[in-house]
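Supplementary Methods, section 5.1.

A reviewer requested that the exact input to the structure prediction be made available. We therefore reproduce it here, unchanged from the version used in the analyses.
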Amino acid sequence: MTTTLVGSHPTTSLDDLLAHSAPAAVALSGADQSAWNGQIVETTDGVVGLAHWDGTLYLGDSILHPLRQMYERAGQEQPVTDLISYREALATLLHEHAHFLGPAGASQEAARGAFIQPGSRQLEEGVAEAWAQDHLDEFIIRLGVDEVAPGIHDVQSTGYYPAFVPAVRILTTDLEARADLRQGEVLNTLNRQTAEGQFPHLLTLLYNSTHLPDLESPTQATTTRTRLESLLREALSHLDTYELHPPGHAAARSRATTATLLTHLQTELTTAESAQTPHPTACTLPAPTPPSTASQPPRSPSRLIPHQSTPHAFYTALAGLTPPKPTPTSTPTSPSPPHRASPTSQSLSR
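The structure derived from this sequence is encoded token-by-token as follows.
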């Protein structure tokens, strides 16, 4: 069951914060609904935050304890380390609520089925975390936390999922450039979807940013989209390799993997467009009409080299031949066929 939530509320206690965190997330995202069922379970088994498929929100003590302390010290000036822990706890809260967001009519069952497909977890976690990082300050203002913890806007938290977030940012930024969209528009669009709708929206944005919708038939379009989806899923699922690596290394490998992915996607799109682009065909010329020998004047003998005479030096030079030796002045008794001398290095240099 899903619950549609709207609005925002300045909070005065932890319970107040938790009750109004979901409406604030819905309002920030522009999503149609949240699948949160209103239940929050505190955990002590190492879980930081978990948006369960049944709509229950699980939060660990590492999240709830700092938030309790924040309200106990409401309005007081607090150490930077404490402000950072408050900010990280609020970022986790917003991240988990992002998982519950979806369009009208979306179901958790369908989202769960899509989430287990290759690349889907990496995409959704990266989208939820990147979006939460970008909207955390506004989330804090909507809930009045900036008045509860003065100075919380002046500190920064590191965030989570360094193997996924850079990939999502590079991919969504590239799509915005292709489709001439506003900065952050693709990330916001994906965040309003469950795992069921994220990959289809990603593929539609990518495919429609080309000329292919005007060139390909429905069958061809399905084939092209399938190839693009395969490339996306393979690259995103590969990011799991770096999930447990140090943050700096994980982020670097995420960026490198996505750069390679974009190259492969562009190659696939270029190939598909080229296959649909007409190429010029060879022009077939008509066969020449044989000239009439009756009306043709005889060829001028001056243009020919007689068999019985020695070729002029002009002709032998153009032919790349060594000029023949002078012949005796006496006239031969019978004409001899012309002799072509073997080329020499001197004659070839002409």
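DSSP finds 14 helices and five strands in the chain. These observations are discussed further in the main text.
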